[in-house]
Design a protein that fits this description.
The protein is an alpha/beta fold. It has a single domain, classed as P-loop containing nucleotide triphosphate hydrolases (Rossmann fold, 3-Layer(aba) Sandwich), CATH 3.40.50.300. It contains eleven helices and seven strands. Strands 3-4-2-5-1-6-7 form a seven-stranded mixed sheet, with helices on both faces. Helix 1 (2-15) packs parallel to helix 11 (237-250). The protein is globular, with a radius of gyration of 17 Å.
Length: 275
Protein backbone atom coordinates (compact mmCIF):
# COMPACT_ATOMS: atom_id res chain seq x y z
CA UNK A 1 0.00 0.00 0.00
CA UNK A 2 2.92 2.35 0.69
CA UNK A 3 4.14 1.90 -2.88
CA UNK A 4 0.65 2.51 -4.23
CA UNK A 5 0.36 5.68 -2.16
CA UNK A 6 3.71 6.82 -3.56
CA UNK A 7 2.44 6.29 -7.11
CA UNK A 8 -0.71 8.25 -6.32
CA UNK A 9 1.31 11.10 -4.82
CA UNK A 10 3.53 11.15 -7.92
CA UNK A 11 0.54 11.38 -10.26
CA UNK A 12 -1.10 14.00 -8.05
CA UNK A 13 1.96 16.23 -8.33
CA UNK A 14 2.00 15.83 -12.11
CA UNK A 15 -1.68 16.66 -12.32
CA UNK A 16 -1.07 19.81 -10.33
CA UNK A 17 1.12 21.38 -13.04
CA UNK A 18 -0.30 24.58 -14.55
CA UNK A 19 -2.13 24.05 -17.81
CA UNK A 20 0.43 26.19 -19.65
CA UNK A 21 3.09 23.56 -18.89
CA UNK A 22 1.07 20.72 -20.35
CA UNK A 23 0.87 20.61 -24.16
CA UNK A 24 -2.07 18.18 -24.23
CA UNK A 25 -5.23 19.15 -26.05
CA UNK A 26 -7.86 20.92 -23.96
CA UNK A 27 -11.41 22.00 -24.59
CA UNK A 28 -12.59 25.40 -23.47
CA UNK A 29 -16.33 24.71 -23.43
CA UNK A 30 -17.80 24.08 -19.98
CA UNK A 31 -20.93 21.94 -19.41
CA UNK A 32 -24.10 23.57 -20.67
CA UNK A 33 -27.73 23.18 -19.65
CA UNK A 34 -28.59 21.29 -22.84
CA UNK A 35 -27.33 20.87 -26.41
CA UNK A 36 -28.90 23.09 -29.03
CA UNK A 37 -30.07 20.17 -31.16
CA UNK A 38 -32.20 18.21 -28.69
CA UNK A 39 -34.07 16.52 -31.52
CA UNK A 40 -30.95 14.51 -32.35
CA UNK A 41 -30.89 13.11 -28.81
CA UNK A 42 -34.59 12.40 -28.88
CA UNK A 43 -34.24 10.50 -32.17
CA UNK A 44 -31.72 8.02 -30.72
CA UNK A 45 -33.23 4.56 -30.11
CA UNK A 46 -34.09 4.04 -26.46
CA UNK A 47 -32.45 1.16 -24.63
CA UNK A 48 -34.45 -1.53 -22.88
CA UNK A 49 -32.32 -2.26 -19.83
CA UNK A 50 -33.31 -5.05 -17.46
CA UNK A 51 -32.63 -4.39 -13.79
CA UNK A 52 -31.92 -8.05 -13.00
CA UNK A 53 -29.39 -8.38 -15.82
CA UNK A 54 -27.59 -5.16 -14.90
CA UNK A 55 -27.33 -6.14 -11.23
CA UNK A 56 -26.05 -9.56 -12.22
CA UNK A 57 -23.30 -7.78 -14.17
CA UNK A 58 -22.50 -5.55 -11.16
CA UNK A 59 -24.02 -2.41 -12.65
CA UNK A 60 -25.13 -1.01 -9.30
CA UNK A 61 -25.65 2.63 -10.30
CA UNK A 62 -28.68 1.89 -12.46
CA UNK A 63 -31.20 2.92 -9.83
CA UNK A 64 -29.09 5.08 -7.55
CA UNK A 65 -29.17 4.79 -3.80
CA UNK A 66 -26.55 3.47 -1.39
CA UNK A 67 -25.09 0.94 -3.83
CA UNK A 68 -24.46 3.73 -6.30
CA UNK A 69 -22.64 5.98 -3.81
CA UNK A 70 -19.03 5.12 -4.82
CA UNK A 71 -19.81 5.72 -8.49
CA UNK A 72 -21.69 8.94 -7.74
CA UNK A 73 -18.70 10.21 -5.75
CA UNK A 74 -16.36 9.40 -8.62
CA UNK A 75 -18.76 10.98 -11.13
CA UNK A 76 -18.86 14.22 -9.16
CA UNK A 77 -15.10 14.40 -8.75
CA UNK A 78 -14.66 13.60 -12.44
CA UNK A 79 -17.05 16.37 -13.48
CA UNK A 80 -15.30 18.84 -11.18
CA UNK A 81 -11.94 18.02 -12.75
CA UNK A 82 -13.40 18.21 -16.25
CA UNK A 83 -14.96 21.61 -15.62
CA UNK A 84 -11.81 22.97 -13.98
CA UNK A 85 -9.57 22.00 -16.90
CA UNK A 86 -12.06 22.28 -19.75
CA UNK A 87 -11.89 18.52 -20.48
CA UNK A 88 -14.69 16.71 -22.27
CA UNK A 89 -13.24 13.46 -23.63
CA UNK A 90 -12.23 11.01 -20.91
CA UNK A 91 -10.76 7.56 -21.59
CA UNK A 92 -11.01 4.75 -19.04
CA UNK A 93 -7.95 2.50 -19.27
CA UNK A 94 -6.30 -0.26 -17.22
CA UNK A 95 -2.86 -1.89 -17.33
CA UNK A 96 -4.31 -5.38 -17.83
CA UNK A 97 -7.68 -7.11 -18.16
CA UNK A 98 -10.08 -7.91 -15.30
CA UNK A 99 -9.63 -4.59 -13.50
CA UNK A 100 -13.34 -3.78 -13.82
CA UNK A 101 -12.90 -1.10 -16.48
CA UNK A 102 -16.04 -1.83 -18.50
CA UNK A 103 -18.13 -2.23 -15.35
CA UNK A 104 -16.87 1.16 -14.19
CA UNK A 105 -17.78 2.75 -17.53
CA UNK A 106 -21.31 1.35 -17.36
CA UNK A 107 -21.84 2.50 -13.77
CA UNK A 108 -20.51 5.97 -14.52
CA UNK A 109 -22.88 6.20 -17.47
CA UNK A 110 -25.94 5.54 -15.30
CA UNK A 111 -24.60 7.82 -12.57
CA UNK A 112 -24.19 10.61 -15.13
CA UNK A 113 -27.80 10.08 -16.21
CA UNK A 114 -28.93 11.54 -12.88
CA UNK A 115 -27.05 14.76 -13.68
CA UNK A 116 -29.89 16.06 -15.84
CA UNK A 117 -28.01 19.23 -16.86
CA UNK A 118 -25.13 17.13 -18.24
CA UNK A 119 -25.33 15.30 -21.57
CA UNK A 120 -22.99 12.32 -21.82
CA UNK A 121 -21.97 9.75 -24.40
CA UNK A 122 -20.31 6.48 -23.29
CA UNK A 123 -18.54 4.61 -26.10
CA UNK A 124 -17.41 0.98 -26.22
CA UNK A 125 -14.03 1.44 -27.90
CA UNK A 126 -12.67 -1.94 -26.84
CA UNK A 127 -13.27 -3.31 -30.31
CA UNK A 128 -11.57 -6.63 -29.50
CA UNK A 129 -13.66 -7.61 -26.47
CA UNK A 130 -16.76 -5.37 -26.48
CA UNK A 131 -16.82 -5.58 -22.68
CA UNK A 132 -19.21 -2.66 -22.16
CA UNK A 133 -21.65 -4.05 -24.73
CA UNK A 134 -21.68 -7.46 -23.01
CA UNK A 135 -22.29 -5.90 -19.60
CA UNK A 136 -25.19 -3.81 -20.90
CA UNK A 137 -26.56 -6.82 -22.84
CA UNK A 138 -27.79 -4.68 -25.71
CA UNK A 139 -27.97 -5.75 -29.35
CA UNK A 140 -27.18 -3.71 -32.44
CA UNK A 141 -26.78 -4.56 -36.11
CA UNK A 142 -23.96 -2.03 -36.29
CA UNK A 143 -21.06 -1.32 -33.95
CA UNK A 144 -18.63 1.49 -33.25
CA UNK A 145 -16.18 0.09 -35.81
CA UNK A 146 -18.89 0.52 -38.47
CA UNK A 147 -19.43 4.10 -37.31
CA UNK A 148 -15.71 4.87 -37.50
CA UNK A 149 -15.49 3.34 -40.98
CA UNK A 150 -18.57 5.39 -41.98
CA UNK A 151 -20.59 2.29 -42.75
CA UNK A 152 -23.22 3.46 -40.26
CA UNK A 153 -24.29 6.58 -38.41
CA UNK A 154 -23.76 6.91 -34.68
CA UNK A 155 -27.52 6.58 -34.20
CA UNK A 156 -27.33 3.09 -35.72
CA UNK A 157 -25.00 1.89 -32.93
CA UNK A 158 -26.39 4.00 -30.07
CA UNK A 159 -28.79 3.25 -27.25
CA UNK A 160 -30.22 6.16 -25.28
CA UNK A 161 -30.98 5.98 -21.57
CA UNK A 162 -33.20 8.78 -20.36
CA UNK A 163 -32.93 12.16 -22.05
CA UNK A 164 -29.21 12.79 -21.54
CA UNK A 165 -27.05 9.64 -21.82
CA UNK A 166 -26.23 7.60 -24.92
CA UNK A 167 -24.21 4.38 -25.07
CA UNK A 168 -22.31 3.56 -28.26
CA UNK A 169 -22.18 -0.24 -28.42
CA UNK A 170 -20.73 -2.99 -30.59
CA UNK A 171 -22.20 -6.01 -32.31
CA UNK A 172 -20.01 -8.55 -30.54
CA UNK A 173 -18.71 -9.85 -33.86
CA UNK A 174 -14.96 -10.04 -34.48
CA UNK A 175 -13.45 -6.79 -35.74
CA UNK A 176 -10.52 -7.00 -38.11
CA UNK A 177 -7.61 -4.61 -37.54
CA UNK A 178 -9.03 -2.78 -34.47
CA UNK A 179 -5.71 -1.07 -33.80
CA UNK A 180 -5.54 0.41 -37.28
CA UNK A 181 -9.17 1.52 -37.02
CA UNK A 182 -8.63 3.38 -33.75
CA UNK A 183 -5.39 4.97 -34.94
CA UNK A 184 -6.81 6.22 -38.24
CA UNK A 185 -7.35 9.90 -38.91
CA UNK A 186 -10.92 8.97 -39.80
CA UNK A 187 -11.57 8.16 -36.13
CA UNK A 188 -10.71 11.72 -35.14
CA UNK A 189 -13.03 13.06 -37.82
CA UNK A 190 -15.93 10.86 -36.78
CA UNK A 191 -15.56 11.86 -33.13
CA UNK A 192 -15.59 15.52 -34.14
CA UNK A 193 -18.79 14.92 -36.13
CA UNK A 194 -20.46 13.18 -33.19
CA UNK A 195 -19.44 16.06 -30.91
CA UNK A 196 -20.77 18.65 -33.35
CA UNK A 197 -24.07 16.81 -33.86
CA UNK A 198 -24.94 15.89 -30.26
CA UNK A 199 -22.89 18.47 -28.33
CA UNK A 200 -22.18 16.20 -25.34
CA UNK A 201 -20.67 17.73 -22.22
CA UNK A 202 -18.81 14.50 -21.47
CA UNK A 203 -17.62 11.64 -23.69
CA UNK A 204 -16.38 8.49 -21.90
CA UNK A 205 -14.36 5.89 -23.80
CA UNK A 206 -14.09 2.32 -22.54
CA UNK A 207 -10.68 1.39 -23.94
CA UNK A 208 -8.77 -1.93 -24.19
CA UNK A 209 -6.16 -2.83 -21.56
CA UNK A 210 -2.96 -0.90 -22.15
CA UNK A 211 -0.63 -3.90 -22.21
CA UNK A 212 -2.80 -6.15 -24.34
CA UNK A 213 -2.30 -4.31 -27.65
CA UNK A 214 -1.26 -1.01 -29.21
CA UNK A 215 -4.87 0.18 -29.57
CA UNK A 216 -4.54 2.88 -26.90
CA UNK A 217 -1.22 4.27 -28.07
CA UNK A 218 -2.60 5.48 -31.36
CA UNK A 219 -5.92 6.66 -29.97
CA UNK A 220 -5.32 8.47 -26.67
CA UNK A 221 -4.17 11.60 -28.48
CA UNK A 222 -7.87 12.08 -29.32
CA UNK A 223 -8.94 12.48 -25.68
CA UNK A 224 -8.36 15.20 -23.10
CA UNK A 225 -7.47 12.90 -20.22
CA UNK A 226 -7.63 9.34 -18.92
CA UNK A 227 -8.62 7.56 -15.72
CA UNK A 228 -6.36 4.60 -14.92
CA UNK A 229 -8.16 1.71 -13.22
CA UNK A 230 -6.06 -0.82 -11.26
CA UNK A 231 -7.09 -3.93 -9.32
CA UNK A 232 -6.11 -4.30 -5.68
CA UNK A 233 -3.83 -7.28 -4.99
CA UNK A 234 -3.68 -8.04 -8.73
CA UNK A 235 -2.01 -5.08 -10.42
CA UNK A 236 1.72 -4.93 -9.56
CA UNK A 237 3.28 -1.56 -8.81
CA UNK A 238 5.54 -2.00 -11.83
CA UNK A 239 2.49 -2.09 -14.11
CA UNK A 240 0.94 0.92 -12.39
CA UNK A 241 4.15 2.89 -12.98
CA UNK A 242 4.33 1.84 -16.63
CA UNK A 243 0.65 2.61 -17.24
CA UNK A 244 0.93 6.06 -15.64
CA UNK A 245 4.02 6.86 -17.70
CA UNK A 246 2.54 5.68 -21.00
CA UNK A 247 -0.73 7.54 -20.46
CA UNK A 248 1.02 10.76 -19.39
CA UNK A 249 3.04 10.69 -22.62
CA UNK A 250 -0.18 10.66 -24.66
CA UNK A 251 -2.69 12.68 -22.67
CA UNK A 252 -3.44 14.03 -19.20
CA UNK A 253 -3.77 11.64 -16.25
CA UNK A 254 -7.01 12.53 -14.47
CA UNK A 255 -6.54 10.01 -11.68
CA UNK A 256 -5.77 6.46 -10.56
CA UNK A 257 -8.68 4.37 -9.24
CA UNK A 258 -7.98 1.44 -6.94
CA UNK A 259 -10.72 -1.10 -7.59
CA UNK A 260 -11.73 -4.45 -6.05
CA UNK A 261 -10.45 -3.84 -2.52
CA UNK A 262 -11.46 -6.63 -0.18
CA UNK A 263 -12.50 -4.78 2.98
CA UNK A 264 -15.47 -5.70 5.17
CA UNK A 265 -18.21 -3.27 4.21
CA UNK A 266 -21.74 -3.12 2.89
CA UNK A 267 -20.55 -1.76 -0.47
CA UNK A 268 -20.42 -5.21 -2.13
CA UNK A 269 -16.65 -5.48 -1.69
CA UNK A 270 -15.89 -2.30 -3.62
CA UNK A 271 -13.85 0.58 -2.26
CA UNK A 272 -12.38 3.40 -4.30
CA UNK A 273 -9.33 5.55 -3.67
CA UNK A 274 -9.53 8.64 -5.89
CA UNK A 275 -7.34 11.72 -5.99
Amino acid sequence: MERLQAAIEKARKQRGKPASQNPRRTQQKTPSASPQNLTMWESLPEADFKREKLHRNRVLAFEGGQESAPFDMLRTRMLQQAKQHGWKRIAIVSPHSNCGKSTMAANLGFSLARQRDTYSIVLDFDLRRAGLTKILEQHSDFGMSDVIKRKADFADAAKRYGPNVAFGINTGAKVNNPSEILQSSQTSGVLSEISATYEPDIMLFDMPPLMASDDNFGFLKNVDCALILVAAEKTPMSQIDVAERHVSELTNVMGIILNKCRYPSKAHGYEYDYY
